[in-house]
């Protein structure tokens, strides 16, 4: 029985999200996705989904970039597949970051049916207005925003205080005066 379970190879389900440089060309992004699809199939895996999430703001600058194009991959394969996918992502100059997560331990690899539109990569064009970066002075709040109607001006918390404690009209004694 132990010999039989050792011969059965376990397939797992993985999700990889990688971030491309914001100025990536259509040819380059499609080349990267087709290269990863080839790696998955060459390693005996199955690509089940690929999505381009478009240009998004990064939580922190990565390689001096504040924005990046997020791409989501979902695939099924053996353990060595992840290391090969990540090795290929590491070699590509247009890839800023990547992360892989195992989502399921045991998946029936034979019963998977993938729709062709789920694995077709679609390049998302970046509008010119979104590519504009905020200046350092605007990030620090030293310059005025152009969209003042959407963001009310900040209130100085100490402007109205007589005693400097932030409460209304005269501090703790105000409630006692009313009684």
Explain how this protein is built:
- The chain is α+β, with helices and mostly antiparallel strands and 179 residues long.
- It is elongated and about 70 Å long.
- The chain has one domain: 2-Layer Sandwich (Alpha-Beta Plaits), CATH 3.30.70.
- Helix 2 runs antiparallel to helix 3 (79-91).
- It has a 4-stranded antiparallel sheet, with helices on one face.
- Residues 1-7 have low confidence and may be disordered.
- The chain contains 5 helices and 4 strands.
- A hairpin with a 2-residue loop joins strand 2 and strand 3.
CATH topology: Alpha-Beta Plaits
CATH architecture: 2-Layer Sandwich
What's the alpha carbon Rg, rounded to whole Å? 26 Å
Low-confidence stretches: 1-7
CATH class: Alpha Beta
Bulk shape:
elongated
Output the keywords.
179 residues; alpha+beta; Alpha-Beta Plaits; four-stranded antiparallel beta sheet; 4 strands; disordered N terminus
Layout of helices and strands, plus pairs?
Layout: H1 2-7, E1 12-20, H2 26-42, E2 46-62, E3 65-77, H3 79-91, E4 95-104, H4 136-139, H5 173-178
Helix pairs in contact: 2-3
Task: Sum this structure up briefly.
By secondary structure, the protein is of the alpha+beta class.
């Amino acid at each position: 029985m132990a010999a039989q379970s050792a011969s059965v190879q376990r397939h797992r389900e993985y999700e990889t999200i990688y971030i491309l440089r914001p100025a990536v060309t259509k040819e380059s992004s499609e080349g990267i996705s087709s290269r990863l699809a080839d790696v998955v199939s060459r390693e005996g895996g199955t690509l089940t989904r690929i999505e381009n999430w478009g240009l998004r703001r990064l939580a922190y600058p990565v390689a001096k970039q504040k924005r990046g194009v997020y791409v989501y991959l979902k695939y099924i394969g053996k353990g060595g597949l992840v290391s090969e996918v990540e090795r290929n992502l590491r070699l590509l100059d247009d890839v800023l970051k990547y992360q892989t997560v195992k989502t399921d331990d045991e998946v029936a690899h034979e019963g998977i049916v993938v729709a062709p539109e789920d694995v077709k990569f679609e390049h998302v064009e970046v509008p010119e207005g979104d590519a504009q970066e905020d200046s350092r002075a605007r990030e620090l709040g030293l310059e005025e925003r152009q969209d003042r109607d959407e963001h009310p001006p900040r209130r100085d918390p100490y402007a109205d205080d007589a005693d400097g404690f932030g409460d209304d009209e005269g501090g703790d004694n105000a409630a006692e005066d009313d009684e």
